[in-house]
Amino acid sequence: MQEKILAHFFYKYALAYEALNHIVHFPDLRKKWMDKLQIGPDDGRVLELGCGTGVSSKIFDKENVLSIHLDINEKFVRYGKKKKRFINGVVGTAYNLCFPDRTFDKIIFADAFHHVLDHERLFQECNRVLKPGGTFIVLDIVHKISAQTSS
Ligand SMILES: C[S@@+](CC[C@H](N)C(=O)[O-])C[C@H]1O[C@@H](n2cnc3c(N)ncnc32)[C@H](O)[C@@H]1O
Questions:
Q1: Quick check: is 96 in a domain?
Q2: How many domains does the chain have?
Q3: How far does residue 30's CA lie from ligand 1's centre (Å)?
Q4: pLDDT of residue 140
Q5: What is the mean pLDDT of the chain?
Q6: Inter-axis angle of helices 14-24 and 2-12, to 10 degrees?
Q7: Which residues does ligand 1 sit against, CB inside 6 Å?
């Protein structure tokens, strides 16, 4: 219950979310991810899903990159735009994308894939809006779970 209240608080207030993100999600991690990706003008149209307040987006939203950044949380998108972390911020759900078929060359999920509940629907949508041969990229934290066996 306490967890639910906290989650509600952090997702309601972009500033609180930013502070938490800074503490638990190691800001350098995102930079490392994005530096490895090296998104540039040759990557064509890029769609970032679950962009949040744009902590990762700001690393690749450059003038020469055609990128769109989408999040379900309207407050986060507004905050990201205000902070100039991305230019093309869109409010919407990754399960029902408001883009025509075969629009993007790359789709990026940065620290957001673990939020996905309906994977089938998500993959259908991404497959629809990706151009043939397009790339689907997931950057996320993996928790090692040690299997426990009972004897
Ligand atoms: C941990 S945050 C990561 C934000 C950002 N990518 C970053 O690197 O800081 C996860 C984000 O996924 C968004 N999200 C969750 N479910 C979503 C959905 N169905 N469609 C779009 N965004 C979603 C949340 O609103 C949240 O902003």
A1: yes
A2: 1
A3: 14
A4: 85
A5: 85
A6: 110
A7: 21, 30, 49-52, 55-56, 71-73, 76, 93-95, 110-112, 115
